[in-house]
Amino acid sequence: MQTVKMVISGAVNAGKTEFIRTISEIEVVSTERPATDDTRLIKKETTVAMDFGRIAIGDDLVLHLFGTPGQKRFDFMWEILSEGMLGLIILVDSTRPETFRETNRIIDFFMSYRETPYVVAANKQDRPNAWSPDELRLALRLPSHIKVLPCMATERESVKNVLLELLDVIMQRSED
Fold first, then answer.
1. Mode of pairing for the β-strands spanning 61-67 and 45-57
2. What residues contact 134, with CB distance under 8 A and at least 6 apart?
3. What is the three-class DSSP state of 141?
4. Domain boundaries, the chain
5. Fewer CB near the terminus (10 Å): N or C of the chain?
6. Rounded CA gap, 5 and 128, in Å?
7. DSSP letters along 72-130, please?
8. CATH placement of domain 2-173
9. How, if at all, do strands 118-123 and 29-34 pair?
10. How far apart are the first and last CA of the chain?
C-alpha cells in the first residue's frame, strides 16, 4: 500500500480544517484553540499547529492530509508540515478578496521551498458573493497550467474531486 502526503494550506478561515473533516475516514487530529488575536473577529477557534486526516483511495493508496495553520504567526509550521509532501492544495475563501494577497504569499512560500504539484481550490462556491474560479485565477495571477477548482469544503464529493484532481496533476508530473 502506497501512502501519499498532501498538505492543505491557505489563509485564515479558508476552510482547511473543514476540508479535512469532510473527507477523513478517521477522527481528525486537530489543534484548534480559541482565537486570541484579530482572528477572533472572524471565527472562535483557529488551528495553531496542524490538522491531520486520512483517506484510502482504493485498496492500494492512502492519502495523509495535513492542514496548516492559516495565521502568519504560526507559519513556521508550514516548512515542517511540507517535509515529504507529494502534493499541495491551496484553499481560498472565494468570498474574501482581502485574503488573496495572503494566498499569493502562501503559494510563493511553498514554491520557493520546494516545487510541488499543486491545485487551487476556490472554496465557498455555494455563496452568492463568491468569486468564480476564473476570476480567482486572474486575481491571483496564476499561470494557465495551474488548476483552479470550484470547491465547497463541507461537501464530500466536492472535496473528493479536488483530491482526485491533485492526484491527476501528481501523476502527470511523474510521467514527464
1. antiparallel
2. 148
3. coil
4. 2-173
5. C
6. 33
7. GGGTHHHHHHHTT-SEEEEEEETT-GGGHHHHHHHHHHHHHH----EEEEEE-TTSTTP
8. 3.40.50.300
9. unpaired
10. 24
Give the helix/strand (H/E) hosting 2. Answer: strand 2-10
Residue type, 108: D
Please indicate, yes or no, whether the overall pTM of this predicted structure exceeds 0.70: yes
| 14-65 pLDDT tens trace | 999 999 999 999 887 676 655 566 655 565 565 555 688 999 988 888 999 9
Residue 93 and residue 124 in contact, taking contact as beta carbons nearer than 8 Å: yes
d(CA 114, CA 133): 25
Q: What is the mean pLDDT of residues 151-170?
A: 95
- With H, G, I as helix, E, B as strand and everything else as coil, classify residue 14: coil
